[in-house]
Amino acid sequence: MKNNKLNFLYTNIGRGHPFYLDGIVELIKAEDRFDLSISDVFESSSDISNLSWQLARSLYRIGSTDSLVGRMYSKLRDSSDFNRQGLAMRIMGRDIEKKYHGDSAPLIVAHPVLVGILANRKNLFYQHGELAVPKQAVVAGAEYVFVPTDKAAEPFITSSYSSSNLIVTGLCIEPCLVKQAEQAFNIRMSRLDSSERLTGGFFSSGAEPKPHIEKLVLATVSVVKHGHNVILFAKKTGNLASLIKREFENRNIELIVVDDKSQKVESGSSAVLCLYSDRKAETELVCRFFEELDFFVAPSHERTNWALGLGLPMFILEPAIGPFSPLNREILLEAGVAESLYSTEDSRQFGNKLNELKKSRKLQHMSESGWEKQPITGFKAITDFLVNKFA
User: Fold this and answer.
1) Residue ranges of the domains in the chain?
2) How many helices (H) and strands (E) does the chain have?
3) 175-369 fold
4) In CATH, what class is 5-173+376-390?
5) pLDDT in tens, 221-260
6) In angstroms, what CA-CA distances link 372 with 192, 232, 311, 386?
7) 234 forms bridges with which residues in the sheet?
């Protein structure tokens, strides 16, 4: 039995915030120095508190749509202030506060609402992995805040934190991608400078908003029509997977379907659909295929880090949904590592645009602009901090 305990509390709503705990947990487990307690808000709540979290998860999914309820939820989310505990936060936090009130072992969270609920608890650590820092993310009450860059630290310092409470970590990128980053970049640059077919990775957010999956389907077809390869990652039970299967079948385009248990697909397959059931399976698939990717298409959420740290050109799915995405987009465009797919017509013409960008060497420039400009070992920096402080 290990003497030192670490607590991790997930929201497990969406992919972004949970992802920023996954990398820490993976590396902390490898250290084998702590007794880990890993839970989420659903496991830690009951009755009306649990129902409130289920409602929050439902609203998150609806909030990605263009429905009236979705637009209302987006406005509500944009005006949220987690520094003030209203009735909803008190209900959501009732059981969580009880569970962790008497536990002084370090507790790591990645969602601002949990910082607000547990504010001023001893040894509360807030992992803010995103480069973007909207006002909703700046919540007082954590002992330390992990941020990826000095720029991301500024809003916290301007608010209520001292610089000594901010730990600048570098970009938080999946450990398995960090291991292969340099080799993948060199292989990518070689392909971009050759006449080889390019391969793109295509991703939706966990909520699979309709405007995004429509653009993804059109863009994948266009890329294949213009002589390149696509690897699309989708939930097994989501709308994206069924739409892409139907579209490729209607167009008589061969589509190879794999999951995390399938053998590696031989290079030369023009269209691969990777199906996953959870975040772990998705990460395993991405790590398997990463060296094959020359660009990727995704919303400007947590994968923003790939474009800025791994030298992988990004094409941003519009519209930018939620408080983080527009700010991440600004960072990407300013760095010269991404372009936006604004309309369905942009997606229909994407394969042609890809060829133009390759011919003009813009793709090569986008890749070079995102390589070795930022440290990419943020998860290791956080792990080292926790080990040095508590092990």
Assistant:
1) 5-173+376-390, 175-369
2) 16, 13
3) Rossmann fold (3.40.50)
4) alpha beta
5) 999 999 999 999 999 988 999 999 999 999 999 999 998 7
6) 18, 27, 8, 26
7) 275
